[in-house]
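Same chain as my last thread, 348 residues:
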Amino acid sequence: MFCAGCKGKLDVGKDSLKCNACESYYCLECLNLGAGKKVSDLGSEQLSALRCPSCTNVSRRRRGNESPGILSPSISKRSPTAGNVLTIESISELLDQKLAPTSDAMKNSRSILIKEVKGLITAEMGKMVNELKEEFTKTTDFIMEEVKSLKSTIAQKDTVIKSLQSEQTVLKDELHKIRNRVSVMEKLSRDRNVELQAVPENRNENVVSMVKSLCEAIELPISDSDIHACRRVAKMDTTSKRPRNIVVTLTSPRLRDSLISAAHRYNKEHSDKKLNTNHIGIKDVCHQIYVSEHLSPECKQLYAAARRLAKDKGYTYCWVKYGQIYLRKSDEAGAILVKSIDFLNTLK
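reply #2:
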């Protein structure tokens, strides 16, 4: 709070008093109470009769100008409402009183101003809120439409995926059947073939003559009419340094089986000198040669995997007969038909 006279800051109740006429607060110096005076030094009669200098001057002027026809030289104009003669100083003092921060007029003005400002702010905020609501509603409506569209698209894609999965299952079954048929056809197409492995290659070689020499060594002589075809075939592994295998196509599966059985019997009876290059007319070197069924590429891969497993898992026997691969743990154990790589993984 500030003094209505000197505008200095006041501490109400300690260094200030209120005028009983205008109810404005003044410091003790502006009230002219005397040097060294304190609020506690004043009696109740003095406090009840306390007037500020402005109110005291106004009261004196009114008492000195009671004659209605006499005007003071300092009069500026008459009050249009009260009919009393006012001076500029009295008007200034009244204005000071009315404009004091603690006056009722200023309090009312501030209250009205606050109400008007609140009303303006409320109105503007209401407009902004309504605009935001409209924009938010448009945005949410747009998002909901997009979500509905996405849900519809996802549902369509889900239907397509389920249809494709069903078709995939059918195609897998058909592919499995086709593979089985191809495997059977490949076995049938090779049921008259014998494959000779590790036979050295020579540019001027006569593979038919070498096959006939081999058959004479195993005591199963054959004629040229028994050999339908005889040729070397391409390597499955082009990086291998082993010579290309010789495939012999005979006139019947029975002759093929007889040749293979005779070769196995010879190797069993001559374990110290199994079939080698000397038996087919190659005298410069002596390498063992192998006689086996002519297997398809897939069957050869499965046979190689079965041999590796037999070595790692301790299986005593691994052989091929009529295009089928078998394993046996020991002489007392039964033979196990190897159907696929996955089946090999299940063996212990």
